[in-house]
Queue: 2 jobs
Job 1
Amino acid sequence: MSKVIADINMAFDGLNDGMTVLAGGFGLCGIPEHTIEAIRMKGTKDLTVVSNNCGVDDFGLGRLLEKQQINKMISSYVGENKIFEQQLINGTLDVELTPQGTLAEKLRAGGAGIPAFYTQTGVGTLIAEGKEAREFDGEMYIMERAIKGDFGIVKAQKADTFGNLVFEKTARNFNPLCAMAAKTTVVEVEELVELGDIDPDEVHMSGVYVDYIYLGEKFEKRIEKRTVKEDVHG
C-alpha cells in the first residue's frame, strides 16, 4: 500500500489544538521545512513541541513561534531564537529544558514501549527536582519518563512507497526517534522510489513507523552559522 500523498495538508486533518508534535532535526539540519509550514498555515495552536531546539526567528520551528502556535517546548537547546526568548520571559511559552542525551532516550523509549528509565544525568541538579531517585551499585540515578507524541514530523533523504527511509549523514539526528515515538508520522523526502528499490541493508528506519510520505521540492536547507577560514594569501 502506497503511503504517498500529493498534498502535505492531507496528513494533518487529525492535528488539533493542544496536541503534541515531535519534530526531527538538529539546529536547522534535517528539519522538515514543508511540514512545519503546513502546520503554520493550518493555524493549529496550543501545541506541545518536542525537538532538540526551536529553529531560528524566521525559519524552522521559529515560524510556529512567530504565530504563537506553540504553548510548550521540550528541548535541549534554545539559544538561537529571539522570539523564543521573548515569549519565555513574558510567560506565553512554557519551556522544559532536557539534557540532550536524555531527550534522545526519552523519545527512543517512547517508540520502544518503555515507560521510563533511570539515568545519572541531572543527579544533584535542578533537573532532578521532583523526580524519583534510586541507587544502583552505589550510584544515584533519577527516573525519566518516556515521551510519546500525537504527530511526528520527519525529514529523510529517500523513501520508498512503503516508507522505508534513508537519511543523509548527520541529518538523521533526531528524525528516526521522532518517527518511532509518534502515533502518526509524516515524512517529507527529497527522493521517492518504488518499494524494493532500496537495498534492505541501506534502510535506516523501517516503513512500519511511517503513515504519510510527501515528496518535497525546493528545500532551502538554510545554514544556521557559517565558520569560514580567512584567505591568508589574499
Job 2
Amino acid sequence: MATADPERPGFLLPLLLLAGFRTLIDDLHAELAGQGHPDLRPVHGFVLQAVGVDGTTASELGQRLGVSKQAAGKTVDRLVALGYLERVDDPADARRKLVRMTEKGVDGLRRSAVLFDALRKRWAATLGEERVAAMEDDLRAVTPPNFFRLDVPGWFGG
C-alpha cells in the first residue's frame, strides 16, 4: 500500500537521514585529512570511542562494536599500524593485552569533536539555528535515550 503523500514516501525518510549522516561524516573526514589525519575512516571513530580513555581488550572491543573478536582485532591491527592505537600489557592481569589510544588517537577524537561543532554551525547557517535545534529535538523525541550505540559497525554488517 502506497503512502498517502506520493511526494513523501515512507522509504525516503531513512534515506534522507542516512544522507545527512553521510554528508556530515564525509565533511568531517575531509577536514580531518587536512588536519593531519588522512587515514582515519568512519569506522575508526566508532573503534576509538569504544576503546575509550581507559583502554579495553580485543574481546571487549568486539562486544562493544557488535563484531567478532577477529574483526575487532583486524581493525585494531590497522589502527596500531597507523599509530592511533597501541597494545600494552594489562596491569591488572599479565595474561591480557589492553588496546589503548595513543596521543594521535586522542588528537583525532579531539579534532573530530571540534569539527562536529563547526559542521553543526555550518548547517545552522544554512537552515537556521532554530530549525537545526528543532530537528535535534524531534530526533530525540523518536529515538531511544541511549541512542549513541557503538555497535553500528556490527549492525550494518548484519
